[in-house]
UniProtKB/TrEMBL annotation, chain A:
<feature type="transmembrane region" description="Helical">
    <location>
        <begin position="79"/>
        <end position="104"/>
    </location>
</feature>
<keyword id="KW-1133">Transmembrane helix</keyword>
<dbReference type="InterPro" id="IPR000515">
    <property type="entry name" value="MetI-like"/>
</dbReference>
<keyword id="KW-1003">Cell membrane</keyword>
<dbReference type="GO" id="GO:0005886">
    <property type="term" value="C:plasma membrane"/>
</dbReference>
<dbReference type="Pfam" id="PF00528">
    <property type="entry name" value="BPD_transp_1"/>
</dbReference>
<comment type="similarity">
    <text>Belongs to the binding-protein-dependent transport system permease family.</text>
</comment>
<dbReference type="InterPro" id="IPR035906">
    <property type="entry name" value="MetI-like_sf"/>
</dbReference>
<keyword id="KW-0812">Transmembrane</keyword>
Automatic annotation (TrEMBL), chain B:
<dbReference type="InterPro" id="IPR035906">
    <property type="entry name" value="MetI-like_sf"/>
</dbReference>
<dbReference type="InterPro" id="IPR050809">
    <property type="entry name" value="UgpAE/MalFG_permease"/>
</dbReference>
<dbReference type="GO" id="GO:0005886">
    <property type="term" value="C:plasma membrane"/>
</dbReference>
<keyword id="KW-0472">Membrane</keyword>
<feature type="transmembrane region" description="Helical">
    <location>
        <begin position="131"/>
        <end position="151"/>
    </location>
</feature>
<keyword id="KW-1133">Transmembrane helix</keyword>
<feature type="domain" description="ABC transmembrane type-1">
    <location>
        <begin position="85"/>
        <end position="299"/>
    </location>
</feature>
<comment type="similarity">
    <text>Belongs to the binding-protein-dependent transport system permease family.</text>
</comment>
<protein>
    <submittedName>
        <fullName>Carbohydrate ABC transporter membrane protein 1 (CUT1 family)</fullName>
    </submittedName>
</protein>
Amino acid sequence: MSRRIVQGVPMPGWPMRMFKGLVLLVFCAVVIIPFVGVISTSLAPNKQINESGGLVLLPKSINFRAYESLFAGGVVTRALFVSIFVTVVGTLLSLTVSCLLAYALARPGFSAGRPILLVVLFSMLFSPGIIPLYLTVKGVGLLDSIWALIVPTMISAFNVVVLRAFFMNLPNEITESARIDGAGELMTFSYIVLPLSKAVLSVIGLFYAVAYWNAFFSALLYLNDSKLWPLQLVLRTYVINDTQLGSAELGTELLPPQASIQMAILVVSIVPILIVYPFLQRHFAKGVLTGAVKG
Amino acid sequence: MLQRSSKRPEQRLSLGRRLVRDRVLLLFALPGTALIVAFHYVPLLGNIIAFKDYQPFLGIGGSDWSGWDNFSVIFNGDPAFLRALKNTLILTSLQSIFVFPAPILLALLLNSLFSERIKRIAQSILYLPHFMSWVIVVALFQQMLGGSGLLNNYLRSHDLSTVNIIGNSELFHVLLTSQIIWKDTGWATILFLAALSQIDSQLYEAASVDGATRMRQLWHVTLPGLRGIIILLFILRLGDSLTVGFEQIILQQQAVGRDISEVLDTYVYNNGVLGGAWGVAAAVGLVKGIVGVVLVLTANKVAHIFGEQGVYQR
């Protein structure tokens, strides 16, 4: 019996294929099961959670009590607003600033292009260290302000390099013709270059957004005031350190079991990523590779 | 003279005039450059407090110089510092041995699948954890492996003895390593998969005509094709080798105590930001940064000697 040939390579026999499939299945299960467990527990009825002693993999019925108490206006609601604000405003600012810089660096005749590019590239080689960074943020007066979560991490040199590589690959003729029609830099940038760059903008936007949404380091370092806490710090306090959430923190008298509240907080911090993920996934490889190859 | 006149006319303008001409582009570049300077280069200069007896109310300028005093914990081998150094080195070696090769193996597995659909589904699932914060990853691990986690609940309900994985200081380094593998292995396959797709399929055909088995094809065609990217990533990793995951560790430090969990970054945070020993912490951070840069430059040099491209060209 001759084996099927794919790309000049004979297809492996069925035991090998079975083995590969099994290994892959285990890998994927290890990734997926924790998410399923957390989401199920946040929706499961009290009785089932108490009986199982913790996580539930398949809820017998679904209730949203844990979420109702989280959104009743307590600590978690406030943290959610902080996180959303930081993510939306931060991502918009980051994208604007990075695109403008990358566009300037991508212009062939820009006289200051080379020195500025070196400033950007060298910053990737050295990291400044926690203490001086903290003192700088303190010196600028950002300590205990919501902007401390945005401004110090607003620009990523790596993302600028990726954007620049993409802008440089756009055909020169398009910008040239815009120039001939009398468009200035700002017109060319906003009406020609940006609309052609939707793919890379969405990937870089996602990278920035995920970084802001997940920001834990800056929040831990720069914020003492718990009113400014983003979701990640709330997660650490009430889920990882297992501090009890009472009616004072939740702003409601109705208290579901701690386990389901904790899992609901986790879900709230995971879901936004799960929602945008499928839309942007097809651009990943491209975005990452432009950065790696041209960087 | 000839060369000068062959330059394009715009380059004959004086620098000042060219800058005036490029004012719009300069304006474009300004905010981004300013941010990089303010939050990268200014803190880099701020490392000067490693040589000062820094007093917060006096500021950097007002504090007295202290020479190399702050470095004494390093040179005299202060036990707390040595402990942090030891844990850092243990974690670095564990990561180099177990975390680094994991995505290569997974990429080889994914690449050898013949069904594009299964490959794409697996990729979607395996990339996902990369987008979760460390807080989420640590919380998920607690829910799975902790005292009242899924694993122990299962063991209890089947009358088996429970295992304590979270909060067990003997298993702490292993736990940290497996968390990193869980979070980033899938994502790291992207680069290797791209490199694999670049390999000329004629090489495989030629090899199989010459009678090479699949294992020999892997050895003589696939792995050489990955060599460049493996070396590149290894050099980049070296630069971070004293950075072993601040967020991940600080989140779990309480559970196991500092003896086993203190690394250089947490040492700097705990002693500086929390403990107020600014100068000492900055000194440790500075030495750590310098060691990282030296490692990258050296490794790159070595790569050049062996005829590889490295991170940047010679």
